[in-house]
Amino acid sequence: xxxxxxxxxxxxxxxxxxxxxxxxxxxxxxxxxxxxxxxxxxxxxxxxxxxxxxxxxxxxxxxxxxxxxxxxxxxxxxxxxxxxxxxxxxxxxxxxxxxxxxxxxxxxxxxxxxxxxxxxxxxxxxxxxxxxxxxxxxxxxxxxxxxxxxxxxxxxxxxxxxxxxxxxxxxxxxxxxxxxxxxxxxxxxxxxxxxxxxxxxxxxxxxxxxxxxxxxxxxxxxxxxxxxxxxxxxxxxxxxxxxxxxxxxx
Length: 250
Ligand SMILES: Nc1ncnc2c1ncn2[C@@H]1O[C@H](COP(=O)(O)OP(=O)(O)OP(=O)(O)O)[C@@H](O)[C@H]1O
Known about the structure:
The strands form two sheets. The protein has a six-stranded mixed beta sheet, with helices on both faces. A four-stranded antiparallel beta sheet has the order 2-1-4-5, with helices on one face. It contains ten helices and ten strands. The protein has a single domain, classed as Rossmann fold (3-Layer(aba) Sandwich), CATH 3.40.50. It has helices spanning 42-48, 79-85, 100-110, 116-129, 133-136, 149-162, 179-192, 205-211, 229-234, 239-245, and strands spanning 4-13, 16-26, 31-35, 59-67, 70-71, 86-89, 167-171, 197-201, 214-219, 222-228. The structure holds adenosine-5'-triphosphate.
């Protein structure tokens, strides 16, 4: 079964037609990069996969988005349940004003989990998975704001992992980070794909080619080309893709 299967998706911000007939499939445990010039609809599409656009007034979607075979826009879908399966990491690290431990425990607590041994194990495991353990193990009760930006971003990744999602959406997760932190996040993405399916929006072509199995090139609300990353970066079919990856526009 496909992990993500979007068919004939159109999306509007009021009258503005932001996504045009998108068809997009992702297999389990793959990393897919969404690339394309600013304003072409990458983030809009990413946010459709965990219904983040529902929060914006005047928006409308047609078509279907299936996550693990379930139509996530069907009336019986609970958005809170969906977001347990489809986690998200944003461009700027956004830890809560809580301790390092409580940031990661948060999703478990709001989901009603009370078993403190389970919470502790899950928090430690998630921080380890996010490649942050060695840096924070002696200060789990300190404020998350005392961490560096790169550490905060890995903490946000740990927070997303704690509730065991199937899919992790990442919207330019390294764009606010220095090169060393960026490299750590990229290594982490590589590790995480053993257990998760990851969709990442990035403006950094090297990053897309380093971290992803497949790459989707968007332009003016259309999915122009979607293929193996090596193919997109060495021998794309479309002129528009070629122009973008070689830096001729965008
Ligand atoms: N909340 C909104 N209300 C109205 N229009 C919006 C809204 N968010 C995005 N848009 C428009 O939809 C289009 C796609 O935006 P989106 O943020 O998805 O692009 P993007 O490819 O992710 O861009 P960037 O690379 O700059 O983040 C743009 O023209 C944008 O102006």
